[in-house]
Specification:
alpha/beta, 12% strand, 6-stranded parallel sheet, 4-stranded parallel sheet, binds iron/sulfur cluster, TIM Barrel, binds 5'-deoxyadenosine, single chain
Length: 354
C-alpha cells in the first residue's frame, strides 16, 4: 500500500469506522513494512487517547474451576484431556481472594472457568451476592454458555458483565474446532446477555489453522455488529494433549495488528492485553498499551491451583504473589505516562452502573 493511501485508510477508520469493509480491514492486516505498522500503531493510539483516555484498568482474574464439558480442539481444559488435574475452588477461597483484590484497590473481579456443570446457578448467584454485598466491585463472569434462563438469575444476583469470546466469526472454522457447538448459538448467548443489560465482551483467537486475514476482519465486523463493550484477542498457543498440539502458535505481530484494528474499528471498548500474548512476548504490556490496549487482567488464582488452569502450555508458570504482580504493573503504567484507573471501568457505551 502506498503511504498516502495507507494514511488515508487509517484516517477513514478513525472518522468512519462503521463504513469500513472486510477487504479494507484485511488489507491492514496484511501490512508487513515496519513503517506501515508503526503508522497503524500510531493511529490506534490516537483513537485510544480520544475515546478512552489515559487510564488503564486492572481486573482481577480468578479461575474458579477448570472442569469443562466441552471439547474445543485447541484447549488443554477440554473434556477428553485426562492428564489435567481438575479443581473447583470453594466459595470461602473465592471470597478470600476477592478480599485480597479489594485490598489492592482492584474494582473488578472476573470469575472464569470451563463450562462446568458442577456450579449450579444457585451457587453462582449466592457467590455473586456475597461479593456484591461486601465489596464495591464489578463482577464479570466468564464461564461459557449456560441455559438462557440462568442469565436473568445471575443478572439479578448482581452480575455486571459477561465475557464469551466468539473465537472465530467463520462458521466453518467455528464448527471444525468446537464439536457440538455452533457460532450461531454463541452469538445468540451474547445477544441474550446484552438484552438483559449485562455488558458483554467477545474476542477471537489468532492462528487457528485455515484462518485468513478476511476471517480476522470478519471477527471485528461481528464484534461491531454486536456492539460489544470489551474485546480480547489472543494468539493460539498449542497444548500437547489436544488435537492441535502440532500447530504452530499464532503470530504475535498479527495479534498486535488485531489489537490496533479492534481499537480503530470498535473504538469505545475495553481492550485487554491478554495473558496468551504476554506468554509469547515479555514486552506485551507496554507494546499492547501503546497500540490500542487499555486493560490488564492480573491473575489472582491461588498459586496452588494456578498451574492446573492450563488452557495452553506454560499457562500460569509465573506464580508471583498478587501484590508483587500488581505493584510491578502499576510501575509499568506510570513509567509509560499513563494512569491506573481507580474506577470500576464499566462500559464506555452505556453510562450504566456496571
Ligand atoms: N491458546 C490460546 N488461547 C486459548 N484459549 C483456549 N485455549 C487456548 C489456547 N490453546 C482461549 C479461548 C477462550 C479463552 C478463555 O482462552 O479463546 O475463550
Ligand atoms: Fe472448555 Fe473454554 Fe477450553 Fe473450550 S476453550 S474446552 S469451553 S475451557
Amino acid at each position: 500500500m502506498s503511504i498516502s493511501s495507507l494514511d488515508d485508510l487509517l484516517e477513514r477508520c478513525r472518522t468512519d469506522p462503521g463504513g469500513r469493509t472486510k477487504e479494507e480491514i484485511a488489507s491492514l492486516l496484511r501490512l508487513t513494512d515496519p513503517g506501515d505498522m508503526a503508522a497503524l500503531w500510531r493511529a490506534a493510539d490516537t483513537v485510544r487517547r480520544e475515546k478512552v483516555g489515559s487510564d488503564i484498568h486492572l481486573r482481577g482474574l480468578l479461575e474458579i474451576s477448570n472442569y469443562c464439558r466441552r471439547n474445543c480442539h485447541y484447549c488443554g481444559l477440554r473434556r477428553d484431556n485426562r492428564a489435567v488435574s481438575r479443581y473447583r475452588l470453594t466459595p470461602r477461597t473465592i471470597l478470600d481472594t476477592v478480599e485480597a483484590l479489594d485490598r489492592q484497590g482492584i474494582r473488578t473481579v472476573v470469575l472464569q472457568s470451563g463450562e462446568d456443570p458442577g456450579w449450579s446457578v444457585g451457587q453462582l448467584a449466592r457467590l455473586i451476592e456475597s461479593i456484591k454485598g461486601r465489596y464495591d466491585m464489578a463482577v464479570t463472569l466468564s464461564i461459557g454458555r449456560r441455559p438462557p434462563e440462568e442469565w436473568r438469575i445471575l443478572r439479578d444476583a448482581g452480575m455486571n458483565r459477561y465475557l464469551l469470546r466468539h473465537e472465530t466469526a467463520c462458521p466453518t472454522l467455528y464448527e471444525r474446532f468446537h464439536p457440538g457447538d455452533t457460532l450461531q448459538d454463541r452469538i445468540r448467548a451474547l445477544k441474550e446477555l446484552r438484552a438483559l443489560g449485562v455488558d458483554i465482551g467477545s474476542g477471537n483467537l489468532i492462528g487457528l489453522p485455515g484462518q485468513t486475514p478476511e476471517a480476522l476482519a470478519a471477527d471485528l465486523l461481528l464484534a461491531r455488529a454486536l456492539e460489544v463493550d470489551m474485546y480480547g484477542v489472543g494468539p493460539f498457543i498449542p497444548h500437547p494433549e489436544t488435537p492441535l498440539s502440532n500447530v504452530p502458535a499464532g503470530s504475535v505481530k498479527d495479534t498486535y495488528k488485531m489489537i490496533a484494528l479492534a481499537r480503530l474499528i470498535l473504538q469505545n471498548v475495553h481492550i485487554p492485553i491478554t495473558t496468551a500474548l504476554c506468554t509469547l512476548d515479555p514486552a506485551a504490556r507496554a507494546r499492547g498499551w501503546s497500540r490500542g490496549g487499555n486493560v490488564i487482567m492480573p491473575n489472582a488464582t491461588p498459586p496452588d491451583v494456578r498451574g492446573h488452569y492450563e488452557i495452553y502450555r506454560e499457562k500460569g508458570v509465573g506464580h508471583a504473589a498478587l501484590e508483587t504482580t500488581v505493584e510491578s504493573i502499576r510501575g509499568e503504567i506510570h513509567a509509560m505516562g499513563r494512569s491506573v484507573s481507580t474506577s470500576r471501568g464499566g462500559s464506555l457505551k452505556r453510562s450504566a452502573t456496571s
